[in-house]
Amino acid sequence: MDTFVQQLINGLNIGAIYALIALGYTMVYGILRLINFAHGDIYMVGAFAGYFIAVKAGMAGPSWGGLVVVLFGSMAVAALVGMAIERFAYRPVRKYSRMTTLITAIGVSLLLENLFVAVFGGQGRGFPQLLQDNAYHLFGNAAISKSQILIFVVSIALMVLLQWIIFRTKVGTAMRAVSFNLNSAKLMGINTNAIITFTFALGSALAAAGGVLTAQYSPTIDPLMGITTGLKAFVAAVLGGIGNIPGAVLGGLLIGVAETMVVGYGGSIGIASTYRDAVAFAILILVLLLRPSGILGTTVQEKV
Amino acid sequence: MLSFIKRVLVTLAILAVLYALNLVMSKQGLFGFGVPLYQVDLWKMAGINIILAVSLNLINGFTGQFSIGHIGFMAIGAYSSTFATVYYTQGLERWLTGVVGADVAAAIVFTFVILVGALAAAIAGLVVGIPSLRLRGDYLAIATLGFAEIIRIIIVNTNRVGGATGFRGCVDSANGVTCIDESMGRLTIPAYTNFFWIGLFAVITIVVIYNIVNSDAGRALISIREDELAAQAMGVNTTRYKVTSFVISSAFAGVAGALYGHWRLPHPGDFTFGRSFEIIIMIVLGGMGSITGSVLGALVVTFLPELLRQLPGGVYNYRLVIYALLLIIIMITRPQGMLGGREFGLSWLKRSRRLPEGTAAVGASKGVPVAEATVRAEKDVEN
């Protein structure tokens, strides 16, 4: 029971990070039908931005103020990077075929990875400790650390904020309109370009928050850290039904929990813990075959 | 009769050219002409990339099904064929050497294991294709990506093929790593692959895919790309054609894998989804639905990063950044790829010939309002 609770906590933790990143994938897909393969790298950019704000601006060392500055600073930097990517790489190819936009996204992803390797080197670097980390014992041997609580609190707060933006504000209404039908939204006088840019900023900020929270929890960052995490977050988005916001959160948590459960219990049913990375894809394929539009997604009937 | 003689002559000429090129690429060279080893490796890689790109083009470019799991089938080809040579064919090769001599024996065994790799990849293609080709567009892409990653992770976790450290023909046993097993002779992977084999299979791939595309079946595939519902309504068994093209394409990826496996020792790190993207970059760069375009794209993707190595010191570190930037710029300025669905040939010199099957890029007519798609198609014609 202790182990189970512990694995559940760890799983939900990783899942919350996946969910934060998956939200960016799903929002961009919902609006542009574009798989933004560079999104995982935005997560990495966020972690690096957090690192430099902490180290260069002297915010390193445990303090709540520093943590807040690092978190919001890196979210702002990532939002700017996301907007720049949208403006200079995706907007010019938006009207072209899907393959072209996909290759552009891959190009942006390669650009960010290689740029960061060239500038900062490929080796990992330690992320400064922003939080006096101590563990709280729940019961038995199960424990939850302060970083983990932080991940839960911040990610839930951000998700609530996102929900509020999308359903309670004017710009959110515009986002939903654009995702429903871009051309009609344009005819209704919505500045679709601005809305798309805003969506990228929002998604990138969420990914950056995920990056800082992860770096704070397991403190090594490197330029290629976004590849696997990004791919799994993307899988989470598809799992929940891509374009569907609650679906992305659900998918993220599901994959996070499934992964840690395989690590924790897989050995007893003959699955080595090294299969951890395959779990996300196995679940994905099962769900796609049984319910092609994802758990919460809606099927669009193709008409002649 | 005449055309038959012509075909035989052309085949012999291609074989002779490949043989001569192979000598040029070998250590001793031909008539004193030789190519540095580093460049030989690049040309070999280019050949393998051509096989991969041209075969993936059958699914992505001609059938319009969006697969990003091609590298998974290459991995299956590489591992199944090297598995065969390491564990099963060495006795056969020794026996054949006694009968027909070492060179011919190696050639026979290599042909056999390439077929093993192709067959294994084809079966995997069938197993993956039947369920996932029901999915459309991006979902199919994601499913194929997932399958490829699962294949790679299974390989990483299989000790009999070397696991995460790569397959060197050595086996991990309880006593540690064993590379020589007295009862079975050598366990290392024989280096059968040379430029001749890669070139031969690159030519075979191009000829086979070209013939498929220009046959009845090819028309059916292209009709699926243009409009799946309409194709279905016209009586095309879309599922069967999609699965068949997927299986054929996978088989060629398996051939590429077998060639790769007997040249460089297969390593799970060579079969990540980043490599899948690289193959897609080749076909999009060359122009979707163009075989010569795929060949061109494969050459560019193989040689461009190497050419960027020539850059002076300060810029050298940024060569991959420049590569990525070039990729984005090409996509923005020439989204239809270099050849844009046309084939490059002698007729190119007279006038830019258009293939009868249309030039719209895959997915151009999907997900956009009809009016917009029509405007775009008209623009394409103007270009």
Q: What is the compact description of this entry?
A:
Chain A has helices at 2-32, 39-56, 64-93, 98-120, 146-168, 170-180, 182-187, 192-217, 226-240, 245-265, 276-290; strands at residues 125-126, 135-139, 142-145, 220-221. By secondary structure, chain A is mainly alpha-helical. The longest helix of chain A has 31 residues, at 2-32.
Structure description:
The complex is a heterodimer of chains A (304) and B (383). Chain A has helices spanning 2-32, 39-56, 64-93, 98-120, 146-168, 170-180, 182-187, 192-217, 226-240, 245-265, 276-290, and strands spanning 125-126, 135-139, 142-145, 220-221. Chain A is mostly helical and 304 residues long. Chain A has one domain. In chain A, helix 6 crosses helix 8. Chain A is globular. By secondary structure, chain B is mostly helical. Chain B has a domain at 40-269. In chain B, the strands form two sheets. Chain B has a two-stranded antiparallel sheet. Chain B has a two-stranded antiparallel ribbon with strand order 3-4. In chain B, helix 7 (195-213) packs antiparallel against helix 10 and helix 8 packs across helix 10. The longest helix of chain B has 31 residues, at 102-132. Chain B is globular, with a radius of gyration of 22 Å. Chains A and B meet through helix 3, helix 4, helix 9 and helix 11 of A and helix 6, helix 9, helix 11 and helix 14 of B.
